[in-house]
Amino acid sequence: MKNKILTFGFDDAEIHDRKLCEMFRKYGMKSTFFILSGQLGFKCDFHRYGEDTVVERVSADEIKDTYSGMEVASHTESHKCDPDDFEGTVGRSMRYLSELCGYEVRGLAYPGGHYTHELVHNLSQNGVLYSRTATVTHSFELPENLLIWNPTCKYDDEDINALTDEFLAYEGEEPILFYIYGHSYELTQKEDGKSFESFEKLLQKLSFRDDILYATNKEVAYLLEKRNNNDNS
């Protein structure tokens, strides 16, 4: 396993994912996209970033093409996660997305990043491989518990450039993990550091390096499981 691992996670499945996926493919990157399975094709007027706009989510019939080369995971059906109702909020969502994608969906992003220990236990008992929070660490440590997977930072974090430089300069033997998360609609902002243009510069800086493993969240989770099993054998 390469000692530097890079992965991304983007939530909510708005149509801006289309452009973002194209950018990831252009720079040889992989990302996981967390889908609100009960809102596919949803569309409504909205006011965001000081402008009247439209919130529109990707449709069910475009899932395979839009997210080609990426990973689809669940963000529940409607951005609600009831710890007492795994089936209704997570299980059904994962099965539906698995049907659309043609592979088993095993990952989750907690709505709002919130979770309870009861929920984590229920996920562990129902075959969920990993679940991402929204608690940033500003570190490259491997997650101790894949069901409480804290990302390194958001894409527009004020320390993103310093973290990127630190990640690229790393020459240690122990593996490190850089996990960047966000929402594609946030990239529609014009402000420097928040826009698609700024994010593309970040991808350019991180792209096509022989010492980096570019992976989806699920690929990272499988690697870490394998590593842990080897360590315990």
Outline the structure in words.
There is one protein chain. With 233 residues, the protein is α/β, with parallel strands linked by helices. It has a single domain (4-232), classed as TIM Barrel (Alpha-Beta Barrel), CATH 3.20.20.370. It has helices at residues 17-26, 63-66, 86-101, 117-125, 160-169, 196-206, 217-232, and strands spanning 4-11, 32-35, 43-48, 51-56, 71-74, 107-109, 130-132, 153-154, 176-183, 212-214. The two termini are 18 Å apart.
What is the compact description of this entry?
With 233 residues, this protein is of the alpha/beta class.
Identify the notable features of this structure and list them briefly.
six-stranded parallel beta sheet; 233 residues; 7 helices; globular; alpha/beta; 33% helix
Summing up helix and strand content along with how strands pair, one would put the structural category as alpha/beta
Q: What summary fits the major beta sheet?
A: 6 strands, parallel
Query: What is the rounded Rg?
Result: 17 Å
Count of individual beta strands: 10
Number of domains: 1
| Total count of helical runs of at least 4 residues | 7
CATH top level?
Alpha Beta
Characterize the quaternary organization of these chains: single chain
Order of helices and strands: EHEEEHEHEHEEHEHEH
Beta-strand content estimate: 15-25%
**Which shape, going by the Cα principal axes?**
globular
Q: Which ranges are low-confidence, i.e. pLDDT below 50, for 5 or more consecutive residues? A: none
Mean pLDDT: 96
What is the CATH third-level topology name?
A: TIM Barrel
Assign the CATH architecture.
Answer: Alpha-Beta Barrel
- For the terminal residues, how far apart are their CA atoms? 18 Å
Helical fraction: 25-40%
CATH superfamily descriptor = Glycoside hydrolase/deacetylase
